[in-house]
């Protein structure tokens, strides 16, 4: 029996002029790489959905709030699924009042292979306690008490990190950055 379902829960908010990256994921049986992705609606200028990888990325150049419908199709059998997502792209830093929750710029994103490191994540505004989530951490790295710690075990390259934050009032923010690991 074949099955396919988009399992990504929601899209992080974006900001004009800031890098945006989210890798959409699916549950597919039997496993296959023969998947095509498509967005049925118009995306904000500067963002695009990669039809092979399911990565929605780019630098948005306009504000946007709306629902987009994403389709995933198996190309080896006649089977597809879709999911609707709310996508919001705002003006950027100046748009959020001081009391609203936001993730501050991540410092020390250049690491060395095999060297122990710690990258503190910082929040501004909102109501503690904070809940952090980081996606796409390289092998050897983990999130502990609002810090990315560990010994990088994957060499050479840049890794896209998606950082999510929620406060006790349910306010959320997201942040995208690159983690570079030198040999």
UniProtKB/TrEMBL annotation:
> In this record, what's one Pfam family?
He_PIG
Q: Which residues cross the membrane?
A: none
Listed GO CC annotations:
membrane
State the source organism's domain of life. Answer: Bacteria
One GO MF term: calcium ion binding
Under InterPro entries, the record lists: Cadherin-like_sf, Ig-like_fold
Protein name as it appears in the record: Ig-like domain-containing protein
Which species is this record about? Parabacteroides distasonis
